[in-house]
């Protein structure tokens, strides 16, 4: 069975790789991926032709005993939050469904217990991890759309770094024509403005679990994403991979993202470091700093945190297991100088 699955994956990859011979513009790629995402989303929703009811037992402070009757395959934790209070709507970041991390916009498929997670919980670890991952995904979206169509932008796998590292990171390979490019402070400010525009739109991160063949088709024009799909599928207990859509941008993610871009209120792109030559070209590490809507920092504290976020974040295999906590005024920079400027 494993051999058969591997052969099918290889065949699909060869077929989809043939599509890369005709290079598409960034806008065409976004449109294609967005359309395929919508098609698969519609197919999955059609699996629930009849409205069936499920019971959702709410957990958390003040919610004990609250029972909601929702629609199977249609209602989400976000739908449940709408039946509670405005506070739950504004502050819910992620959910626990029968103890499992669950994106707020992912449909519920059976009766369950549900806990809404916020940044101010007694243990905000899962919310913080999802937030850092989401900030990195937002940075990838900005980079994917920031360059002219004649330049290719290949987003690599987002390193899973703890918030104690001081910065979220997004690895990328730019067109070879840009190998000598060093981002100026104005370029970083431009990336920040692009991110803030997406934040202002308060776009949802829509999750979708798909078969590897669907993901390979969606990322048919991305050399690296095809490899990443296969790696994620091999590691997945369900054999599926997780996609997220923000606006018309579709991305892969190893873990859940937060509900919406509007949660990332304080957000700044702080550095882009050149790393080493890899099989895909010159690897670069884009970094940034953010604090959520509920945990804003005074500008003097922000400057200290930003200084720390400029230094290169080293990614090690053990970094993902470190305890995650949002940056604080007590966090101290550790070493290197800010990135080279033009």
Automatic annotation (TrEMBL):
InterPro entries: Beta-grasp_dom_sf, Pro-tRNA_synthetase, Thr/Ala-tRNA-synth_IIc_edit. Residues 313-342 are annotated as: Disordered. The keyword Ribonucleoprotein applies. Keywords: Mitochondrion, Ribonucleoprotein, Ribosomal protein. GO terms for cellular component: mitochondrion; ribonucleoprotein complex; ribosome. CDD domains: TGS_ThrRS. Belongs to the mitochondrion-specific ribosomal protein mL39 family. It comes from Coilia grayii. This is Large ribosomal subunit protein mL39. The keyword Ribonucleoprotein applies. It is found in: Mitochondrion.
């Amino acid at each position: 069975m494993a051999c058969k699955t591997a052969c099918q994956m290889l065949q699909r990859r060869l077929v989809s790789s043939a599509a890369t011979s005709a290079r598409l513009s960034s806008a065409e790629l976004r449109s294609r991926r967005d359309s395929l995402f919508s098609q698969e989303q519609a197919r999955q929703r059609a699996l629930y032709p009849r409205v069936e009811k499920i019971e959702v037992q709410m957990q958390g402070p003040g919610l004990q005993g609250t029972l909601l009757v929702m629609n199977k395959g249609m209602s989400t934790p976000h739908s449940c939050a709408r039946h509670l209070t405005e506070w739950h709507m504004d502050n819910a970041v992620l959910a626990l469904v029968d103890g499992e991390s669950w994106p707020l916009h992912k449909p519920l498929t059976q009766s369950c217990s549900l806990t809404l997670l916020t940044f101010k919980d007694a243990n905000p670890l899962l919310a913080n991890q999802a937030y850092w991952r989401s900030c990195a995904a937002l940075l990838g979206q900005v980079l994917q759309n920031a360059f002219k169509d004649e330049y290719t932008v290949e987003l690599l796998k987002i390193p899973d770094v703890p918030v104690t590292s001081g910065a979220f990171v997004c690895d990328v390979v730019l067109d070879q024509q840009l190998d000598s490019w060093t981002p100026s402070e104005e370029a970083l400010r431009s990336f920040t403005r692009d991110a803030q525009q997406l934040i202002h739109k308060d776009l949802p991160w829509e999750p979708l679990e798909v078969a590897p063949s669907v993901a390979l088709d969606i990322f048919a024009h991305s050399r690296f994403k095809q490899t990443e799909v296969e790696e994620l599928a091999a590691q997945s207990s369900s054999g599926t991979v997780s996609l997220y859509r923000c606006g018309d941008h579709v991305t892969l993610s190893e873990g859940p993202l937060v509900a919406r871009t509007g949660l990332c209120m304080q957000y700044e792109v702080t550095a882009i470091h050149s790393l080493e030559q890899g099989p895909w070209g010159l690897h670069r590490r884009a970094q940034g700093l953010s604090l959520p809507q509920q945990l804003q920092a005074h500008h003097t504290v922000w400057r200290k945190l930003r200084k720390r976020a400029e230094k290169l974040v080293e990614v090690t295999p053990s970094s993902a297991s470190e305890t995650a906590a949002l940056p604080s005024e007590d966090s101290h920079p550790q070493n290197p100088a800010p990135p080279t400027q033009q």
